[in-house]
Amino acid sequence: MVLLQISEPGRSPEPHQRRRAVGIDLGTTNSLVATVRSGTPETLLDSENQHLLPSVVHYIASGETTVGRRAYAQSADDPLNTLISIKRFMGRGIEDIKTLGSQLPYDMVASDSGMPNFNTVAGEISPVAASSEILKVLIERAELALDGQLEGAVITVPAYFDEAQRQATKDAATLAGVKVLRLLNEPTAAAVAYGLDQGGEGVIAVYDLGGGTFDISILRLSHGVFEVLATGGDSALGGDDFDRALAQWLGEQAALGDDLNPSLQRQLLMAARSAKESLSSQLQVEISVAGWTGELKREQLDRLIDPLIDKTLRACKRSLRDAGLKPEDVANVVMVGGSTRTLRVREKVTEAFGRQPLVDIDPDRVVAIGAALQADVLVGNKPGDEMLLLDVIPLSLGIETMGGLMEKIIHRNTTIPVAKAQEFTTFKDGQVAMAIHVLQGERELISNSRSLARFELRGIPPMVAGAAKIRVSFQVDADGLLNVSAKELNSGVESHVEVKPSYGLNDEDVTRMLKESYTHAREDMQARALREQQVDADRMYEDLLVALNQDGHELLSDKEYHCLEAALDDLKQVRQSTNHREIARHIEMVSKTSEEFAARRMNASIQKALTGHSLNEIEKGV
Amino acid sequence: MDFTSNYFEIFGLPAGYQVDLELLANRYHQMQREFHPDRYINKPSQEQRLAVQYAAVINQAYTELKSPLLRAQYLLSLSGIESSREASITRDSTFLMQQIELREALSEVREADEPFVVLDRVAEEARDQYADLQREFGQQYSQADVEDAVDTVAKMQFFSKLLNEVEQFEQELDGE
Predict the structure, then answer these.
(1) Hey, is A414 helix, strand or coil?
(2) Cβ pair A524, A574 in contact under 8 A
(3) CA A139 to CA A23: how far, in whole Å?
(4) A293 phi/psi in degrees, rounded to 5
(5) Hey, how many other C-beta atoms are within 10 angstroms of the C-beta on A384?
(6) Half-sphere exposure (Cβ direction) of B145: Cα atoms closer than 13 Å
(7) β-pairing, A284-289 with A292-297?
(8) What residues contact residue A493 under an 8 Å CB cut-off, 6+ apart?
(9) Catalytic residue numbers of A, as ranges
(10) Distance between CA A459 and CA A456 in Å, rounded?
């Protein structure tokens, strides 16, 4: 029996209808949005035909914002209310950004959660909220270009971003009201853009130097599978540091002293950046800033930035070693990020790998393009596509043990998703609780690691020291986000945390911020909640319908089939209502009803995959 | 058939120490093409959750089967012998003497005139012996000589550690 399908106005029930999905490169300096149209990836233009949206948000007293070029123009006049390089503050604690604070002219204040906020005329603004303003502009641009609501977005992050920084990025997307299909590592995105473009096989090294971050990734491409072998970098090193080194030099030339006001600092930085950019195409440049006029030769710039570039090359060496490879094993070097336009960077990378790097795709756009390609595959616009990305976690994860040491549970460069467990025991007789401190980093001493979360396992039955068996399980999903649970094996006492970083927002924060952004329009919030539930309901309906048509009769008894079918019919009815809670309740019900079906389908897939093996063996003549 | 069963079955390979690594990699990609969460974005949410778990098992299986040491330990664990903890220490005194010599050579690297030359020599020696041990384990395992196989795995652990330390030295010498 085939279920009759009736399409709603404006919707097609075809499972392979084109779904609107985008790739977003949320950069330190610039951000972009790209999509795949007619099989070709393209970055989307704003109304002034620009691809790049400067990642700058300007706040005024009413709380309204301007984003992009117009905001950047305010930067020297109104530095405290014009937020640039926001990405550098994402997921960071107040301690982390002290060093940045002296370089960036902001008034930073600590929030209750220990997170740094920008103090602006519009009040305290968190880095997550500021980032969401940038995302909103890009989403609006995409929805205009694609003429409808987005199914979701792939958002790129530096490979070297830790858990807290990834979670902060996801929170920003939630605030902006877009579904995150996947957080994708920037170098992996670039490799996808080049790999699919050139169809090359073999080892690819992606050298990604952005405004504020440096990433190096070593991948192997084989028959459409991009397998990341190793990744490394520095989440606080980028082209902005070139600008700062040069700005400092300019300050010295102009004999300005150390104590500069924010406005003058900005002028120096802007002059430095523009001089650096000019030197990508000419040998020297005339500079006039803060009453000083002089000439800057390319060699002088090279001398200033060489120590920074050398730092990136050391990270490249380490990643190659992690991958068990030598520079000559690399078939292609891909350059990503605006800072790779600096000629000295290209020279030194060529030297280090012994080959000319690829620069065919605009280094500013390549990441967004790769993200768009993956988004297109993820939402199912390319059924039967062979492309698959196997990525890794950049930093080791573990927990604190006696003596302030970190015991690693998952090592860096492990392919995700991954689940690992390790057993620990109690230290004292009669100990009934255990504090679990989750850490990320490579060093043994916890003082050198990043604290991700703390939680407690309580209710352990009193036993002699060493008798309890506490199994701590880590699960990292395909976005690189961590879940931790702990269980005492003798008693079955369990405790579980979705790791919300020590310096991050908790779920209530996100909900509160969402509410705040809608305080003046309650109906907006209702409408939004309804729309979200409707999208979820439609999605579930379509997905399950396809699944039922494919396998329903094979895997379910008649009774089960009709039961599920009835639940789906109900869902379809309820979806028409305007009560979002009611829709949510039905989604939950259908979800429960279809649990067993899901398990059987997965099992059938395993059987099929295993039969596939023996077929191959026949082909290979084994 | 489910994912709690043995890693070799997941990839449809015969359980044994000799593994065709290229075939293993192909099977691994094939299985991930099927079960990676990226393939389940349009599937019902329960299937998405299961996919995360399955993909994690496939990754773990691949990691253990492709490493010479982990594969040996896994084979022993299939026979009910847990060799992953350091409790198993070899009694082979000749072997221990060799280890001490190699470690001494390594500890002198920093003071050496040409540290990289010394380091390369130690690394090469260690890799050769490690490869010999892997061959030995293969034979012992196929002849069901469990006692010796356990001893060989203990020795392999020494070399695996030593080679890690060699890498750390390389890193240090590179000024990282």
Answers:
(1) coil
(2) no
(3) 10
(4) -125, 135
(5) 4
(6) 12
(7) antiparallel
(8) A457, A458, A459, A460, A461, A487
(9) 25, 87, 186, 208
(10) 10
Write phi, then psi, for B118 (nearest 5 degrees).
-65, -45
Q: Which residues of A touch B31 (CB under 8 A)?
A: 609
Rounded percentage of chain B residues whose pLDDT exceeds 70: 91
- Average pLDDT for chain B: 85
Q: Is the dihedral of CA A344, A347, A352, A356 positive or negative?
A: positive
Check if the beta carbon of residue B90 is closer than 8 Å to that of residue B151: yes
The residue type of A416 is I
Q: Is A324 exposed, middle or buried (0-12, 13-18, 19+ CB in 10 A)?
A: exposed
Does B119 have pLDDT greater than 80? yes
pLDDT for A310 equals 93
> In Å, how far is A409's CA from the nearest CA of chain B?
13
Residue A132's pLDDT is what? 95
How confident is the model over B43-66, as a mean pLDDT? Answer: 90
Write out chain A residues lying below 8 Å of B21, CB-based. none
Are the CB atoms for A114 and A93 separated by under 8 Å? yes
| DSSP string for A122-187 | TEEE-HHHHHHHHHHHHHHHHHHHHTS--SEEEEEE-TT--HHHHHHHHHHHHHHT--EEEEEEHH
pLDDT digit string, tens, across residues A40-61: 999 999 999 999 999 999 999 9
Contact B94, B155 (CB under 8 A): no
H-helix segments, A254-342: 262-278, 298-322
* DSSP per position, A543-561: HHHHHIIIIIHHHS-HHHH
Q: Minimal Cα–Cα distance from A386 to chain B, Å?
A: 8
Interface confidence, given as ipTM, is 0.87
Dist. CA A461–CA A470, nearest whole Å: 12
Radius of gyration of chain B, Cα coordinates, nearest whole angstrom: 20
Q: Which of A316, A206, A305, A395 is nearest to B174 (CA)?
A: A316
Taking any CB pair shorter than 8 Å as contact, residues of chain B touching chain A are 1-3, 9, 11-12, 25, 27, 29-39, 41-47, 50-57, 59-60, 62-63, 167, 170-171, 174-176
pLDDT < 70 regions, chain A: 1-17, 98-105, 112-114, 196-199, 384, 496-526, 528, 610-622
Cβ neighbours around A307 below 10 Å, total: 10
For range B12-20, the mean pLDDT: 92
CB contact at 8 A, A59 and A125: yes
Tokens, residue A218: 């070593």
- Strand-strand pairing, A21-26 and A152-157: parallel
Residue type, A372: A
pTM of the model: 0.81
Q: Are B38 and A478 within 8 A, CB to CB?
A: yes
Cβ contact, residue pair A377, B38, below 8 Å: yes
Higher pLDDT, A272 or B94: A272
- In this predicted structure, what is the pLDDT of residue A69? 93
From residue A406, give the alpha-carbon distance in Å to each of A101, A274, A437, A439, A441. 29, 45, 9, 7, 9
What per-residue confidence (pLDDT) applies to A3? 46
Structure tokens at B92: 């082979």
- As a whole number of Å, the end-to-end CA separation of chain B is 47
Shortest Cα distance from A464 to chain B (angstroms)? Answer: 23
Q: Which residue has the higher pLDDT, B158 or A532?
A: B158
Residue reference for tokens 């990433």? A215
Cβ-nearest to B1 among A314, A419, A606? A606
CB A417 within 8 A of CB B52: yes
SS3 B140: helix
Q: Which uninterrupted H or E stretch holds A494?
A: strand A494-498
Angle between helices A580-593 and A595-620 (to 10 degrees): 50
Helix A522-547, helix A580-593: angle, nearest 10? 20
| Rounded Cα–Cα distance for residues A174 and A139 (Å) | 12
